[in-house]
Amino acid sequence: MENNNQTQATQEQTQAQQQNQQPNQQQTNYVNNAINYVQNTADHSAEYDPADVQKNKNVCMLAYLGILFFVPLIACPDSKYGRFHANQGLLLLIFSAAVGIVLSILSRIFVGIAVASYSLGLLYTFSTIFSVLGFVVGIATLALIIFGMVNTYNGKAKELPVIGKIRIIK
Q1: Which residues pair with 96 in a beta bridge?
Q2: In this structure, what DSSP letter does residue 160 have?
Q3: Distances (CA, A) of 97 to 10, 59, 120, 143, 161
Q4: If DSSP codes are grouped into helix, strand and coil, which group holds residue 88?
Q5: Secondary structure of 35-79 in the HEC alphabet?
Q6: Listed residue (155, 149, 137, 153) closest to 88, CA to CA
Q7: pLDDT tens readout for residues 88-133
């Protein structure tokens, strides 16, 4: 009888451990899917002349530093590789500015609602939410800047995740 109770207790412990591991496996799957998505963005490196890439890759890195997106267009105007990275840098600048403006407007609206309703709790809540969102957007932008600069340094022409498919500069 004791053997049956021990076996049953062991089986219950095993089931409990498996149930605890399932959320961790789901989280791991989400992280792995996100990493795969970033690593598998479209790579246009084969479309560019290797001599053009080697000659202009250092200048093209500057395209990801905000307003400096235009530097490759001036420094190497005939370079298709330079145009690609100038486009990616411009997209990143527009994306970060647009999201920043939207967050700022929403923050003002919601904080205004909290002030108008004389609710200090709402004011703190909305302020905290928009501060965290701003921080997350900042980190995401920094990650995209690093992604673009590292790929450029390595001589690759990979699109930025999510926004990289858009072509403004051709």
Answers
A1: none
A2: P
A3: 57, 23, 30, 16, 17
A4: helix
A5: HHHHHCCCECHHHCCHHHHHHHHHHHHHHHCHHHHHHHHHHCCCC
A6: 149
A7: 999 999 999 999 999 999 888 888 888 887 777 788 888 888 889 9
For 57, other C-beta atoms within 10 Å of its C-beta total 21
Residue with tokens 């990650």: 143
CB 130 within 8 A of CB 106: yes
Nearest to 156 by CA among 38, 53, 36: 53
- Measure the CA–CA gap between 155 and 51, rounded to whole angstroms: 10
What pairs with residue 66 in β-bridges?
A: none
Residue 158 is classified by DSSP as: B
Distance from C-alpha of 80 to C-alpha of 166, rounded to nearest angstrom: 16
For the cut 70, the answer to whether the pLDDT of residue 170 exceeds it is yes
Tokens for 134? 């701003």
Angle at 96 between CA 92 and CA 97, to 5 degrees: 115
In whole angstroms, give the CA distance from residue 88 to residue 158: 9
d(CA 76, CA 49): 14
